[in-house]
Specification:
This protein is α/β, with parallel strands linked by helices. It is built from 27 helices and 13 strands.
Length: about 650
């Protein structure tokens, strides 16, 4: 079938994209490569389509399908989307991606090469032809190009050759592509998706969540958009979740199971009802976690896969929990997060916890008992605060204690659990002993960025303290705001405020932090403190077993700026302070500053990590885990531009 005919079929609704297909993920290099191959009449592969009744065909986009048999693209979506975008000058109706990738393609009549528009290089050179303009003008428009070229003396002699090249370029739409069809009444969605995955074994293979969503969209075409709308609401509130995560909560509400396969027999009305109930309970969970625990943004929202379990319990209780049940559930969530309950085999762990909620003996107590049997003692010990960096699992615990307790700012003396207004009142991580002063005295990076050296202050206060030593500014704080130091668990012995006693200060503060954590957890249990149990054997404070992580607000803002840039280019945001854990035990092995564990183009490119100011052992660990590592922002941006987007410098 000619390419021009295929494009016409897309316009008329005779060819479309099945709902289970992912969006457009090609980059500019792939676009250019396709057109170069077609221009030179090199083989580019055929298409695989699913011929099915339009009345039952679940397709992407808001375009109307033609009556009768339609053909849904199983293999060839990226190529046909690219051709449609360049030839038609706009994306097809089923498009979901970054149209910038195929906008501005040019062809040089002299060198017969393709490139994307660069003003300085191309604007005054008539040999650079706008491919889309040529395609839309067609053969009838060749005269205009010929006239323009003939008017330039140095090009006039070669006009004949140029016309031949323009014709060859236009002839791309006359190329025949082999189209193989999957047909037959026995070709169910399951069979077709299996065929798709086999054909795309080297490309964008569907996850279990993709498959479940495809089946849902077959009955409820607006499902994906409805779920994305909810995800956007939570993103606007500071929480970055994905479709798989939301679908997991829908699943737990409807089936009490984590495995997506249990959704397969649910119809559109079931899913709509499940989404409504799950969204309501997620909103409640986020409000409780933010309001009661103070975990009010994505960076400190550990254990996010605990939410589907919370959602199931709330649905069982029809959304009504008394104060004791509410706090006990929050106790479980915080404990599950800080011990890394969901860092290993997520689906298996969620299923175990859901199982604890079922039956006559199921419920909150059974859930807590399962957590205790899995981890052991739930009481916090000073050694648990030995971690370092903003990626340590006890970093959110420190933030939680600050928000839950009576922690006060050292500049204004205000309680930090209140909603503070104004840019200068935003909470920042403060190094109690300044980094520069500690590095001068040859302290290691983990020591300098130890959790026990962190506290939270307003931006204004953080700036006013600057790099002064505690032995100087602590006395000022205590004079102006008596009790403010103790509210942030600062040892009261002034001898420990001296930098020569830094290590002793850390040990003393860890004792205070552990005591405060257990106090807050006991409050959540409303006297039912058996869950904390007897103290465990003291944990020896040693070098943290994991390495890496964000160590300052400035570094965190730098990583967020990278994420904003990546998102602006139509690519997925990475995970800040990515918790790299042992897949079997869930033990935290490392924290990567910014990571895309599924790649910037999921299914097409490998895992990527940005590691700023990290030692070689972090790089080695990430590399061994299969991540492509970048140690500077410029290096990473160059990779994205040249290998993912293939943007050429103007």
């Amino acid at each position: 079938m000619k390419i021009s005919t295929i494009l016409d079929h897309i316009d008329s609704g005779h060819m479309a994209l099945p709902e289970f297909q992912r969006g457009y993920v090609w980059n500019r290099d792939q676009v250019r490569g396709l057109f170069d191959s077609l221009y030179r009449r090199h083989p580019v592969g055929g298409l695989l389509v699913w011929a099915t009744e339009s009345k039952t065909a679940a397709h992407r986009g808001d375009g109307t399908l033609a009556a009768g048999i339609v053909k849904l693209l199983l293999d060839g979506q990226q190529r046909m989307t690219t051709l449609y975008g360049v030839v038609r000058g706009k994306p097809p109706k089923f498009f979901d991606g970054n149209a910038h990738v195929f906008t501005g393609l040019r062809f040089h009549l002299g060198t017969e090469t393709f490139a994307f528009y660069q003003p300085v290089k191309m604007q005054d050179d008539p040999l650079w032809i706008d491919v889309t303009t040529l395609m839309q003008a067609g053969t009838a428009g060749l005269g205009t190009f010929v006239s323009e070229l003939s008017a330039v003396p140095e090009h006039a002699a070669n006009v004949g050759a140029y016309v031949g090249r323009l014709s060859a370029l236009l002839g791309i739409t006359d190329i025949d592509l082999h189209v193989e069809e999957v047909t037959g009444a026995d070709k169910t969605l399951d069979i077709v998706v299996d065929i798709f995955n086999r054909v795309n074994s080297g490309g964008t293979k569907l996850s279990k969540g993709d498959l479940a969503l495809a089946k849902i969209c077959a009955e409820w075409p607006d499902a994906r958009d409805s779920m994305k709308a909810k995800l956007k609401d939570w993103a606007d509130a500071g929480y970055n979740f994905n479709l798989d995560w939301l679908l997991r909560s829908v699943n737990t509400v409807l089936t009490g199971e984590a495995k997506f396969s249990y959704l397969h027999d649910k119809d559109a009305l079931d899913i709509q009802d499940g989404l409504k109930r799950a969204s309501k309970h997620i909103d409640t969970s986020l409000n409780l976690i933010a309001g009661r625990l103070g975990l009010d943004h994505d960076q400190v929202f550990f254990g996010r896969f605990g939410v589907p379990v919370m959602v199931r319990l709330m649905d069982q209780k029809q959304g009504t929990l008394d104060a004791v049940e509410r706090d006990k559930l929050l106790f479980w969530f915080a404990q599950a997060g800080m011990w890394g309950r969901f860092s290993g085999s997520t689906e298996t762990i969620i299923d175990q916890d859901l199982g604890a909620l079922e039956g006559p003996t199921g419920g909150l107590d059974a859930l807590l008992e399962r957590l205790r049997l899995w981890h052991g003692g739930l009481r916090v010990e000073p050694g648990h605060f030995t971690g370092w960096s903003l990626g340590a699992r006890f970093y959110p615990v420190l933030y939680m204690l600050t928000r839950m307790g009576e922690a006060r700012d050292w500049g204004m003396g205000l309680a930090l659990k209140a909603n503070l207004l104004g840019k200068m009142s935003r909470l920042e991580v403060h190094h109690i002993f300044p980094k520069a002063q500690l590095y001068k005295r040859n302290h290691s990076r983990p020591e300098v960025n130890a959790l026990a050296n962190f506290c939270f202050l307003t931006k204004d206060t953080n700036l006013s303290i600057s790099d002064r030593l505690p032995e100087i500014y602590f006395a000022e704080v205590e004079t102006k705001h008596p009790g403010a130091l103790a509210s942030q668990w600062i040892p009261t012995d002034p001898a420990l405020w001296k930098i020569e006693r830094y290590r002793d200060f850390l040990e003393a503060r860890k004792e205070l932090l552990a005591a405060e954590a257990n106090k807050r957890f006991e409050e959540l249990l409303h006297g039912d403190s058996k869950w904390l149990g007897a103290p465990m054997s003291p944990i020896v404070s040693a070098e943290p077993p994991f390495v890496g992580g964000v160590t300052s607000e400035a570094e965190e803002l730098e990583l967020e700026a990278i994420n904003d840039w990546v998102e602006g280019e139509g690519l997925p945001r990475g995970q800040v302070s990515y918790d790299y854990a042992d897949p079997d035990t869930g033990d935290q092995k490392a924290v990567f500053d910014l990571a895309w564990p599924d790649g910037l183009q999921p299914g097409l490119t490998g895992p990527v990590a940005v590691l700023l100011n990290e030692p070689t052992d972090v790089l080695s660990l990430a590399s061994a885990a299969g991540f492509r590592c970048f140690t500077s922002v410029a290096e990473f941006r160059s990779y994205v531009a040249n290998e993912i987007l293939k943007l050429e410098a103007a």
